[in-house]
From TrEMBL:
Identification of the protein by name: Exopolyphosphatase
Domain Ppx/GppA phosphatase N-terminal positions: 34-317
An example Gene Ontology molecular-function term: pyrophosphatase activity
Signal sequence, start to end: none
Origin: domain of life: Bacteria
Entries under Pfam families matching the protein: Ppx-GppA (PF02541)
Gene responsible for this protein: ppx
Natural source organism: Reticulibacter mediterranei
Family, as annotated: Belongs to the GppA/Ppx family.
Length: 339
C-alpha cells in the first residue's frame, strides 16, 4: 500500500486553484462589478469598476426604467462581461436592488438584459441585500485580529439603506429603509446647492424613518458602504486633509463636509476635488443621511468600506454553492426582522 503524505498548499497554489467569479450589482445609482479569486472567508479582488447610471432617477420621475437607462445599463454590462472574460472568470452573477424592485417595468428590463447579454439578473429583497452587504463589508475584520463585539453596517445606496446590527459577527437585526441618496435628492433636496428649507424638510422625513431603528448603546463601530460614503471619505481627504490611508471619519469631519456641500454648487465641487458631477449632485443628500444616522446611533465616528454587496455575492457563492441565492432567501425568511 502506497503511503499518503499530507501536502499543505502554498499561497501561490491556493490562488491558482481558487475559482474566479464576477459579481455585478445593478443599483439605483450605479452599476458596479467586482472580479475576484474567491475563497470561503475572503476574496482576492482582480478588478473593481462602476458606472454612475442613475436608474433610480427615471424610476423616481415616472415609476419606470427609461429606454435610455436600459440601453446605458446594457452597454455597461457588456463592458463588464469583457472584463470578466479578460480575467477568465468562470461565472458572472448579477443582482438588482431598490430601483429595479420599484420599477413598473422591471420584468421587461431584466428580459432585455438577458436577450442582449445572456446574463440572468436576480432582483433581491432588502433582507437578502442586507445579508450580502454584511458579508462583504465585514470579511476583512476576521482577517485582522479580534473584531469588535457589537458592530453595525449601513449600506447607503441610491434608493434604499440597509442597516444591520451584529454581535460577534452574527447578524441579530436588520432592516431595509426606503432612504437613498438619489431618491432623497430627487424628492427633497433637488436644488444646487440645497436650500435651508429643503434640508429641513428632508430632515423631518429622515427622522420619521430613523425613529424605527432600535436605540443602541453598545455599538463599537458603524461601517458605511456605498458610493455616498466612499465619496464623502474622498472629499474629506481632499478638503479637510484627512490622511489618504484613513478609512475613519469623525462626526466633525462629516459636519464640515456637509457644510462645504451646502455652500458650493455641484459643478464647483466636481471642479475643485475632483468628483464625478452626477455624484456631486446627489452627495449632499447622502451626507445628510450619514450625519443623521450617526446622531440617531449616538456615534462620534464611522468607518468607510469599499466592499459590500458584490463581495458578499462572491462569498455566498463559495460558501453555499450553486443554490447560494435560494439558501440566503431561506435564511432571511426564517430569521425575520428581530432585535
Amino acid at each position: 500500500m502506497q503511503e499518503q503524505t499530507e501536502h499543505t498548499l502554498s499561497h501561490e497554489e491556493m490562488l491558482s486553484t481558487a475559482p474566479v467569479y464576477a459579481a455585478i450589482d445593478i443599483g439605483s445609482n450605479t452599476v458596479h462589478v467586482v472580479v475576484a479569486r474567491c475563497f470561503e472567508d475572503h476574496v482576492a479582488i482582480l478588478a473593481d469598476e462602476l458606472e454612475l447610471v442613475r436608474i433610480g432617477e427615471s424610476v423616481n420621475a415616472t415609476g419606470a426604467i427609461s429606454s435610455q437607462k436600459r440601453d446605458q445599463t446594457i452597454a455597461t454590462l457588456q463592458k463588464y462581461q469583457a472584463l470578466a472574460e479578460h480575467y477568465a472568470a468562470t461565472s458572472v452573477f448579477g443582482v438588482a436592488t431598490e430601483a429595479i424592485r420599484r420599477a413598473s417595468n422591471s420584468a421587461e428590463f431584466l428580459a432585455a438584459i438577458r436577450e442582449a447579454t445572456g446574463l440572468v439578473v436576480h432582483i433581491i429583497g432588502g433582507d437578502v441585500e442586507a445579508a450580502l452587504t454584511f458579508y462583504g463589508a465585514t470579511y476583512e475584520l476576521s482577517q485582522h485580529g479580534s473584531p469588535p463585539v457589537d458592530i453595525a453596517v449601513a449600506d447607503l445606496g441610491g434608493g434604499s439603506m440597509e442597516l444591520i446590527f451584529a454581535h460577534q459577527l452574527q447578524i441579530i437585526w436588520s432592516t431595509s429603509l426606503p432612504i437613498g441618496s438619489g431618491s432623497l435628492h430627487d424628492r427633497y433636496v433637488p436644488s444646487n446647492p440645497p436650500t435651508h428649507q429643503e434640508v429641513a424638510t428632508a430632515q423631518t422625513f429622515l427622522l420619521d424613518h430613523f425613529q424605527k431603528i432600535p436605540a443602541q448603546t453598545h455599538l463599537a463601530a458603524l461601517i458605511f458602504v456605498g458610493g455616498s460614503a466612499n465619496t464623502l471619505l474622498y472629499l474629506a481627504r481632499y478638503s479637510l486633509g484627512v490622511s489618504q490611508a484613513e478609512t475613519q471619519l469623525s462626526y466633525e469631519d462629516v459636519v464640515r463636509c456637509e457644510g462645504i456641500l451646502r455652500v458650493l454648487s455641484a459643478d464647483e465641487v466636481a471642479r475643485r476635488y475632483p468628483i464625478n458631477l452626477q455624484r456631486a449632485r446627489i452627495l449632499p443628500a447622502g451626507v445628510l443621511i450619514i450625519r443623521m444616522l450617526m446622531e440617531r446611533l449616538q456615534l462620534k465616528e464611522i468607518y468607510v468600506s469599499a466592499h459590500g454587496i458584490r463581495e458578499g455575492v462572491l462569498l455566498a457563492r463559495v460558501r453555499y454553492g450553486e443554490q447560494w441565492l435560494t439558501q440566503l432567501q431561506d435564511n432571511t425568511t426564517h430569521a425575520g426582522e428581530h432585535a
